[in-house]
Design a protein that fits this description.
Distance between the termini: 47 Å
Strand content: 5-15%
Number of strands: 5
Order of helices and strands: EEHEEEHHHH
Shape: globular
Structural class: alpha+beta
Helix content: 25-40%
Number of helices: 5
Radius of gyration: 15 Å
Largest sheet: 5 strands, mixed
Length: about 170
């Protein structure tokens, strides 16, 4: 075991784990953050998507040693300090996106990363950015509609701020 330190959802974390352990299992089993899901175990379905320094990664195939000194954000880290949902999460609810819901945390994390890099994506941009996230229920048109709806609200969102500013 090795002592590893990184930031998780804005808070410093240090723990003793095997450095080759997939980040997903450290997040779920060691840190009790169960919003990130296990899907395929090979980084192909997107259910385990988290952010590494703002970029979406597949945590099931990413060794925790790669997170050392980095900032990791999970679905739990999207809420602001007052417990308010991220604009993408709000849009997911408004558009009734989930059916079974299993893939949704990964879908949301990919959508958030897309909107942070491209605040006004086209349908083609959305399809390209979300292509690595599989939804067995086939809610892709609802996902696209929710991303478009959230686009304006994401531009100034900062979940770590005391008064997260969300454009309306």
């Amino acid at each position: 075991m090795t002592s590893l330190a990184f930031t998780l959802n804005g808070k410093a974390v240090e723990l003793d784990v095997d450095p080759g352990t997939p980040l997903l299992w450290v997040i779920r089993d060691e840190l009790a953050m169960t919003g990130t899901k296990f899907g395929c175990g090979m980084g192909l379905c997107g259910a385990c998507t988290v952010h590494l320094n703002g970029n979406p990664i597949r945590s099931c195939s990413f060794p925790v040693q790669g997170a050392v000194g980095q900032a990791i954000t999970t679905i739990e880290g999207l809420v602001d300090e007052q417990g308010g949902l991220h604009p993408v999460q709000e849009a997911w609810i408004e558009h009734n996106v989930p059916q079974c819901g299993y893939c949704q945390s990964g879908q949301i994390m990919s959508a958030v990363a897309l909107l942070e890099s491209n605040p006004q994506p086209s349908d083609a941009d959305i399809d390209a950015a979300m292509s690595g996230n599989i939804c067995r229920c086939g809610t892709y048109s609802k996902i696209r509609a929710a991303i478009h709806a959230a686009a304006a609200g994401v531009q100034h969102y900062d979940p770590q701020a005391n008064n997260a500013e969300v454009a309306s």
